Amino acid sequence: MAFDGIVIANLVRDLNTSILNGRISKIAQPENDELLLTMKGQEGQVRLLLSASASLPLIYLTEANKPSPLTAPNFCMLLRKHMAGGRITAVTQPGLERIINFEIEHLNELGDLCRKLLIVEVMGKHSNIIFCDDTGMIIDSIKHISGHVSSVREVLPGREYFIPQTQEKMNPLETSQEEFLSRALAKPLTVAQALYDSYTGISPVIASEICFRSSIDGDSPAAALSDDERLHLFRQFTLFMEDVREGNFAPNIVRKGKEPLEFASVPLTQYRDYEAVSYPSISKVLEEYYAAKSIYTRIRQKSVDLRRIVGTALERNRKKFDLQKKQLKDTEKKEKYKIYGELIHTYGYDLTEGAKELLALNYYTNENIRIPLDPQLTPGENAQKYFDRYNKLKRTYEALSRLIEDTRSEILHLESISTSLDIAVSEDDLTQIKEELMEYGYIKKRRSGKKEKIKSKPFHYISSDGYHIYIGKNNYQNEELTFKFAGGNDWWFHAKGIPGSHVIVKAEGQELPDRVFEEAGRLAAYYSKARGAEKVEIDYLQRKNIKKPNGSKPGFVVYYTNYSLTIDSDISGLSQVEE
Length: 579
What we know:
The chain is α+β, with helices and mostly antiparallel strands. The protein has helices spanning about 5-20, 75-85, 175-185, 190-200, 205-215, 225-245, 280-300, 305-330, 335-345, 380-425, 425-440, 475-485, 515-525, and strands at about 25-30, 35-40, 45-50, 60, 85-90, 100-105, 115-120, 130-135, 140, 250-255, 260-265, 275-280, 355-360, 365-370, 460, 470, 490-495, 505, 535-540, 565, 575. The chain is built from 13 helices and 21 strands.
């Protein structure tokens, strides 16, 4: 994701068509580093969110309101004094900087017409909202930056405002061919790095996009380009910037499945394997992208503890599994001891007293072998000694085989829970996974007997031919779908040999078209540990042929006859039903 100068240019264009000449009716400061301006614009009342958050600076138009503190902060009170009722006369962007200037016209206490400047800098941890007079002198800012914090520029009342030129980057809207070739591509960097390191407002994503459109590998050294490639790259760069200059924007979000992957104000052709959703404005893109992204981020944050518990248990069981297999290998010599005992019984009658070995023909392999003997024991006692060793190793083998099977089952169970955490999309999904971890002793159970009410439901899709497809989000839902929800003639899909969701296609007594099998297979691949793979093997069969072993963990099934298909995990063409 990149809130770069091109996105800012798109925003400025949108704001000039929606809030230019609009009057500011309300100013609020919901957070310490955030403003919400309500104004009456050309399209009625609109709200403009301005955030100078170090982790997530934002500017976009929104319909949503946010609660404000009971006592307004000093900066908010200052803006209300100078800007309330004021009219926005210009919205501009200097060059392609990540800065928006709002020129505001208002009447002072004496009724004289005055002009002020509200400057929003969207620069990561250096983001700020700065209020200046018409001469460029800073009146106040949402963040005060003293000389102790920054040696480049102080942002304090009474200081003159200027844009810090710390990196000596060029303006991409005004670059020349000579400047492009001799300055940008002369740097000892990759092609993409040379572009975003040389020009303001260009993010790594946009630099890669320009390279992709030029059919040039952005990761190759800039010095390795031929003269023709350098000229072709410049032409593509110029065409790209011409679209920006003329405002030919196409706001979109690139999605990987349901998760937002990237956003931009221009088509990102480098992501052609993913779905790109277009939007009427960049504000809609920003609002939806960050709202959706925050959901995934919040779920990942909330699942950290569960992931740690599952990861620790998996590591412990995998170490135990390796140790058990090593111990099992040590029992392989048990058959040798059994044969030694038998051969001593067969050939030991002519052994001399105190013999230290027996040379005998192994009638199983028709080879002569030497069997070590204890000279202080009789042949019968030596044979019994080997039989005792055999029986001990046999008992160890049988016990270890059961333990290994139990450990393997536990590893598969934990891996399935780990996959469930990967596909969880809500807190209810995490609650259900937590219940399973408590049931199997990975988390201590609550002392209060009252269970949390779980609202999590399986994923629900509609195939291209109108068939309903359901996908379990976790082992409990897999169990419910397969053995309680699905009918005997419904179809069941699962990624072969790896953790993943049970996928049920409701057949409704009909013969399914081939396309339904392919789409259900893609869903089974996507909602498995193999998500993102180009080829995933999928097992599928009718539900009536699936059995659940007694005492097995939830979601565990067995089947003996099935069909198979190999398919990718791209589900971008499928429509999900929002429950």
